[in-house]
Structure formats: structure tokens, C-alpha cells
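User: Hey, my collaborator sent me this sequence without any context and asked if I could get a structure. I don't really work with proteins. Can you help?
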Amino acid sequence: MNTNIILNTQLTDYDYTDKRRKNAIVLDVETALSEGNEQLIFDIGWTVTSVTKQEMVMHRSYIVEEIFLDMDLMRKAYYFNKYPQYVKALADGKAQLLPYNEIIAILNADITKYNVYRMFAYNGNFDKTAINKTHKYLNNSTSELLYDIKDLWSLSTQTFMATEKFVLTALENEWVTEKGNIKTSAEIAYRYLTGNHEFEEKHTATEDTLIETEILWKINKYSEKDFECGRQPWRRVKELKESLGL
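Assistant: No problem. I've predicted the 3D structure and written it out in C-alpha cell form, which is a compact way to encode the shape of the chain:
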């Protein structure tokens, strides 16, 4: 875990009471599993960013107290092997443990303060569902907490991944699944956009929001985009590959 990232501190000195100054949020979550196999958030982070300026305004990251301290839940987390990293980050003061509802209150305050016009996540449906499930689980509630989160995965497969150059680069570097489909994860997107073909995603909300923010900056240059979360976005690249006879 990169502990040199500046967290929870405004990184610009602009006056955000000027409502013309709009920003976006890029959000990421890591989850554990309930007994009913529902995804419950133990790690959540987001960036507030000026997309047009490609500038970071705020970078937040929190560990969810109720989930992280429940070892029955955490042992079912996909990345449970990272648990000692989180404990060390907390001990070193590089991570903050807060109750879930306090974290959501901070998120909502950022949306208002920084004039957030749109929220994004890579595989946005997953993050949106996890927020809702965690809200219901921890509040013993039937009411829903659903944010309008646009899908960077879907946007990626509509823009730079929807090119012959991407397909050829992916095949050359063997970014393919066992079934021969081209991989379209955030890790692959970042590799392609930066040229750092050895990059490996960290799978912590703190660090993944940074690469996903950079992906958003790159996507922003494309004018025609469908911001809705599409189902199985990877199929667009599969179909392109097949149309090219590759």
C-alpha cells in the first residue's frame, strides 16, 4: 500500500463557492461477503477531480469500522491477504477507520462543497450495488441508497478500447483471457494509456481511485459517450476483435 499519498486534504486553493467550478468524483470500493453473499464495503475511497484541467482536488480513503473489525466478514473478503497492510496503515496513521454512516456523510458533503456534477467508477454497477447493500446491512434498513454512478469500464470500451490499435496492442502483450477474449479491466486500461505494460493494480480503494481518475482524464477527450452502465462492456471489444478477423 502506498502510504505517501496525501489523503483527506484539499489540494487546490480555488474558491468552490463559485458554482461554475464543476468537479467529478471517481469512487472505488473493496468488499467482504455477508452470510448471504452480499458485497459489503470495508474499504472505500474517492477522488474529487477537475476533469477538464486534469487536476486532483481531494483524495479521500476510509476503512469501514463495522465491517473491517468483523473477522467473520473479513475472512470472506477476496483480498483478505491484504488485511495486514491495512492494519499497518492504521497503526502508522496512514489510514482512517470510521463508521460507515460518517463516511457517507463526508461523501455527500464533498458532492455539495465541490459542485460534483457526475460520479464515476470502473465497473460502476458493482460499486453502486455495494454501497446500497452496505447501507441496508448496517442500518437494518429496507430503504435504498443509490448514487448515479457512471461506468468507466463501459466508457473505456466505447472509446480508446474500441480501436484497432488497442486490440493489436492487447494481442501483442497477451492481455487475453483463457477463452481468448481481450481483457478490459482498469489494470489493462491503465497499462495501455500510460505505456507501462508491467503495471499491476493494487486493489485498494486508496490507490485504485488514482489510476481510475487518470483513465477518466484520458476518456474526457472523446465527445460522444454513453454514460450509462452497460452490461458486459467487454463484449464490445470481443466483437471488434472478431470483425477485424483477429
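In plain terms: The longest strand covers residues 39-50. You can pass these C-alpha cells on to your collaborator as they are.
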